[in-house]
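Quick one: structure for this chain?
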Amino acid sequence: MRPKVEFLTPELKQRIISEARELICKLGIEIHNDSVISLLSDHGAKVEGQRVYYTDDIIDKSLESTPDSFKLYDSMGKEAVDLSGYKVNYTPGSAAINILDSNTGKSRKPTSADYVRYTQLMTGMRHVASQSTAMVPVDVHERISDSYRLYLSLMFCEKPVVTGTFTIEAFEIMKDLQLAVRGSKEALAAKPLTVFSCCPTSPLKWSDVTSQNVVDCARYSIPVEYISMPLSGFMAPVTLVGSIVQHTAETLSGLAITQLTNPGAPVLWGGSPAIFDLRYETTPMGAIGTMMIDCAYNEIGKHFGIPTQAYIGLSDAKMLDAQAGLETSMGATLAALAGINNISGPGMLDFESCFSLEKLVVDNEICGMTHRLVRGIEPKNDFPSLPHFEELLREGHLLISDHTRKHVRDEIYFPGPTIDRANRSRWEEEGSLTIGERARSEVTRLLTEAEPVRLSNDVKNEMTRLITTEANKLGMDKLPALE
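Got it. Here's what it folds into:
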């Protein structure tokens, strides 16, 4: 039996959905994109300036055409991520503006070389299924930052990418990079390589850029995850239920834009909400209230039969310490038990603003543990029990029994060297290393063993041509050094 956690009763889910529908039909959504307004108007929405009043028909039609699952494929075309049912997948947190320096332990601005190390490290993260555009290098022009990060991800790691853009123009080159890998629009639609994060603005608003991103992704069947971000007590009602109502309304509004553009386009019912800590004026991602909202809105998505995503399983700590472990593991465990399909968080610190390679390695082990957790407990040649216990009494142990050898690897999760499982004397003999020191050593080992991406030189050269052309337009003579 798969263990699960739920926060909403069926009656409460229905009431939340009903209230959210009423919000976007009676209060409307503010949209700053004329073509999107026209799209909704053509399907019966009432328009007053930039405020669009949805209809029940628009909502119902959009929900009906939304697929209940989809898969992501790596750059070699191999299935990598199954976003269906209660299947759980992890991806790192996104778009950090700082990196925790491995040598100094201080936060600093990341470079292209840092990003390459991250992508190469991702290859060895066995329990993290996809990569993300995790940090923002400062050594490229900000107007190609989005496309450049996707370029580096595809050049140095084969896993699919959770990404996004902050400009309308960047979508074109990011789409072309994917077409260079897949070869055609049809091949990209058949085997999606990326998920684009598209963020409404709380409360109840879509900007010109993000709403256009939703439309552009839909036209190419590039999956999107809607990242509604209500802040409980600040830009949303202080109650968790009130924040979930707002999240549901904002996400339904984006869903309609996708499905009216291209019925059947793949999407994730996602988000990055947070409670607002009035004492510090911060948005803690490691707060229990934040985690509860994430798990609960996931239940709304599942009620609709839509695969889900959440920014959860990350920490507001400033370094790899006890708080980082506490918040990350609690979030990752709750998310796995809730069945969130794409869990965004590993590697992230400091309110989603700082990335740590060492934390990514530790979080990889947390992800592995939760994968084992959700497989639950089931009998494996355990009955009848009598023969096993007869052997135990006869031999004095079961270390090399057929039953042990057959099931030990799939029944017991064995973490890597980052997690200390030695007794004290052996731990002392091996240097009394802290988890940070073990993680740093593991980062070094994995980077040393990283192998090149298997894309053809023609594909790599085309991607490099695309990004170099864009860089040249912005006055960059050459791309930054990657070492």
